[in-house]
Amino acid sequence: MYLCILKELYSMLEREKTPLLGMTMDELRMAVKEIGMPAFIGSQLADWIYRHGVESIEEMTNISKKNLDKLQERFFLGKMPNAEAVRSVDGTVKYLFPTLDGQRVESVFIPDSDRGTLCVSSQVGCRMGCRFCMTGRQGFHGNLTATDILNQIYSLPERERLTNVVFMGQGEPLDNLDAVLRATQLLMADYGWAWSPKRITISTVGVRKTLSRFLEESNCHLAISLHSPFPEQRREMIPAEKSYSLTEFLPLLKEKDWSHQRRLSFEYIVFEGMNDTQAHAKEMVRLLAPLECRVNLIHFHQIPDTPFKGTSEKKMVWLRDYLTHHGITTTIRASRGEDIYAACGMLNTAENKKKQNTVLV
After folding, report:
1. pLDDT given at position 351
2. Buried b (16+ CB within 10 A) or exposed e, 261-293
3. Which of 84, 141, 277, 355 keeps 20 to 30 A from 232, CA to CA?
4. How far apart, in whole angstroms, are the C-alpha atoms of residue 347 and residue 335?
């Protein structure tokens, strides 16, 4: 009881402060000038936050005690440790991270030889309503801030092993584009990790109103959740098809030059008897052959109360070979973390509202 009261009091105090994680170098420089400090301290803050990944403001040893005290009166770091971690037999780890507004989201770390990929969330829940997705069933409960998104990365215990980040967790990234762009730009900033955009992939159902902006403002890889080449059937699987139709956003993609510097891929969960037929394969070739792209075939992981059923491995292989033979590079994505509900489409935090055990730093 005492810890709960202490955490609630701490949260109330911190609510009046501004998180540093998520600010750009220029914003940090302006912020410190507003409280009477020289601008170069903002540069020092950026170095400590994004390059060194400090856990608290007190760790910034090249800033005077007087200035550290002034900083802590107005700001807090914004990093929040995970409230829960579950490890799969295959090494995949699912984390439950708190958000600044007291909610929580799941993210998944996937180790693979010399690669380490983090699947991050961009929203609490999702408003796209995909029938085969646990997050879609959760409904929409709010956008994450850039601080919330970056916290999943900077508070990750395996942070030093990361080689890639994919926005394929909870939420529709292009439905929260401002925060997603800010987070990716900070990952790529020269005062931070200086990552190449080729290390970051944004997944979307194809939100037309923000897709064009994303294509203009970012060079990160793009993954489109396709799941059916027929708009009518896709609408049954992805209700958002009504507003963001294939017929609207595919022409936009065809206008772009998809070189090896920026990859376009299509995600395709394969369902038995629904989208694994020769008719679907032929239509996918017709739609996608004009594009420089690849297709990722994904096993369906069963979720409660759904009519969907995953297709056989034999049919997955047939579909892969058919598309590849017709000029579309196609792979079958290895399933990871299914035993801890961390696989594609299985992230859901609706039942975790009472599990937060964290303190802001």
Report:
1. 52
2. ebbbbbbbbbbeebbbeeebbeebbebbeebbb
3. 141
4. 14
| Residue 103 CA: distances (Å) to CA of 21, 148, 217 | 18, 10, 29
Measure the CA–CA gap between 175 and 188, rounded to whole angstroms. 21
Residue 30 lies inside a defined structural domain of this protein: yes
Q: How many residues does the chain have?
A: 361
Sequence-ordered list of residues with C-beta below 8 angstroms from that of 313, at least 6 positions apart, any chain: none
Our count of domains for the chain comes to 2
3, pLDDT greater than 70:
no
Q: Tell the residue number behind the tokens 């942070």, with chain if given.
A: 159
Q: Look at residue 229 and tell me if it is in a domain.
A: yes
Domain of residue 314, residue span = 84-340
- Name the more confident of 339 and 98: 98
- Average predicted confidence (pLDDT) for the chain: 91
163 and 24 part of one domain: no
Residue type, 242: K
Q: Would residue 302 be called left, alpha or beta, if left means φ above 0 and alpha means ψ between -120 and 50 degrees?
A: beta
CA 330 to chain centre: 23
What is d(CA 51, CA 189) in angstroms, rounded to the nearest whole number? 10
This model's pTM is above 0.90 = yes
What is residue 356's predicted lDDT score, i.e. its pLDDT?
44
Three-state DSSP class for residue 59: helix
